[in-house]
Design brief:
Chain lengths: 198, 242
């Protein structure tokens, strides 16, 4: 088998399908990306604390910001953005689901710290974990990039995270399912965030 | 003595063979006894009842919205028995409210009898883009006033049902990975005083499935949604939510 692999023809036969498959991979498209995106350089993004829109907000997730913003940080770094993470939760206290569904320019202009221009809002819409013969976790997040200069929405997308493992091992992992699902949903969400190319 | 020893040895050997199975079974039983699944039906309201002064209620046709969980795209209701779920919501609510002592008005009969009522009722149906911001347009306030005059100040009950449709649960036999169903429904109800457009009562319930008129869980969810809504018979104070 090893001898076969060392022959150039066989190497080609293995690598050609691999190259074709990677070429076919399509990047995730966001639900919304403004046509104005890319016309102006994004100097710095302000990332606000995570907004919790879960129904009756149970169980409590004291580490939600850590889970979500950790993934957001790593994605923004990889996409070559400069950013700051806000820790003041009062910045998102009054945000409602309706505010994000029907975006109003005046509302956007007053979002986040006054000296910021580009603002990211991440909302956790749903998260649950189940224990059966194994355990599972589901999470749903949505994300928005706003330009406070003209009060417009620049990017919007959703991320879904589904994790689970059957059997006794899965049962023992119940405690980490919610965290893993939230993290996975955030990665899925940020996959469509455009790269800073200016 | 030997017989006794043989009996003990045989017993021990048999039990040693089935011991792993017993351990596994006991562990499974222990785990399933402390299984904490996420609540299938849950409500946001407290147990405290809201007492409503008016006994007459007009139930508006519910607003049902089916959306894909992955991108919020609107999905056709017909694929998920949406119409039937809406019809059930109105009929079961009528039954529950009648039992509580409310008088649910027949809008078809009122529309046939009174053209003003019909115009105002149809106007509200056409204008209510977001029923939870109901009194925001002047046209809507006017229609509500007309409705109040022609229905002896009946309150209107508005239902909004938002269904997020996601993939069903899966099991991968090769690596044991499992996932659970991710669809869920949020049922919202709002009671509005017609003469001034004030919100009298509201409630919200979450059901972790797509509403099915034949499902007992959907029925339970509707019942829970209206549970704390009561008539003010007996002189209780009316609770008003702004």
């Amino acid at each position: 088998m090893y001898k076969l692999f060392t022959k150039p023809l066989y190497r080609l036969l293995i690598f050609i399908p691999f190259l074709i498959l990677t070429g076919c991979a399509v990047a995730k498209q966001p639900i919304f990306l403004s046509s104005t995106f890319g016309q102006e350089k994004i100097e710095s993004i302000q990332v606000l604390p995570v907004v919790d829109f879960r129904f009756n907000k149970e169980p409590e997730l004291p580490e939600l910001d850590k889970w979500v913003l950790g993934e957001v940080k790593s994605k923004l770094k990889r996409k070559e953005y400069t950013f700051t993470i806000a820790s003041d939760t009062s910045l998102v206290d009054n945000i409602t689901e309706e505010d994000l569904q029907e975006v109003d320019a005046e509302w956007v202009k007053n979002l986040g710290p006054s000296d910021s221009r580009w603002v990211i809002v991440i909302a956790l819409l749903d998260a649950k974990s189940n224990l059966t013969f194994g355990s599972t976790g589901n999470a749903e997040v949505s994300g928005y990039l706003f330009d406070k200069k003209d009060g417009s929405m620049v990017w919007r997308d959703k991320g879904i995270g589904k994790v689970g493992q059957g059997g006794l091992v899965g049962m023992l992992l119940k405690g980490s399912m919610l965290r893993d699902a939230v993290k996975k949903a955030t990665v899925d969400l940020m996959n469509s965030f455009p790269k800073n190319e200016i | 003595m030997d017989t006794m020893r043989n009996v003990i040895n045989t017993f021990a050997r048999t039990n040693l063979r089935v011991l792993p199975a017993i351990v596994l079974l006991v562990t499974l039983l222990l785990f399933s006894s402390c299984a904490t699944t996420s609540q299938h039906i849950s409500s946001n309201s407290g147990k405290e009842a809201s007492y409503i002064a008016h006994e007459k209620i007009i139930i508006m046709p519910p607003i049902l919205k089916y959306m894909s969980i992955s991108n919020d795209a609107t999905l056709p209701q017909t694929n998920y028995k949406g119409e039937e779920a809406g019809v059930f919501l109105v009929s079961y609510s009528t039954e529950l409210l009648s039992k509580k002592g409310f008088s649910v008005l027949d809008t078809t009969a009122l529309s046939e009898k009174d053209s003003k009522f019909k115009t105002a009722y149809n106007g509200i149906l056409g204008e209510r883009i977001n029923p939870f911001r109901l009194s925001s347009t002047p046209e809507l306030a006017d229609d509500l006033k007309v409705l109040a005059e022609s229905s002896d100040n009946a309150d209107i009950l508005i239902f909004m049902v938002r269904v997020k449709v996601g993939p069903d649960g899966t099991w991968n036999p090769f690596n044991g990975a499992i996932t659970s169903n991710s669809s869920y429904t949020r049922l919202k109800a709002l009671l509005v005083e017609t003469k001034n457009g004030r919100s009298l009562w509201k409630n919200e319930v979450q059901l972790r499935e797509i509403p099915d008129p034949e499902s007992s869980d959907y029925k339970k969810a509707v019942k829970l949604l209206l549970e704390n809504l009561k008539t003010a018979k007996g002189g209780q104070n009316v609770q008003i939510i702004h």
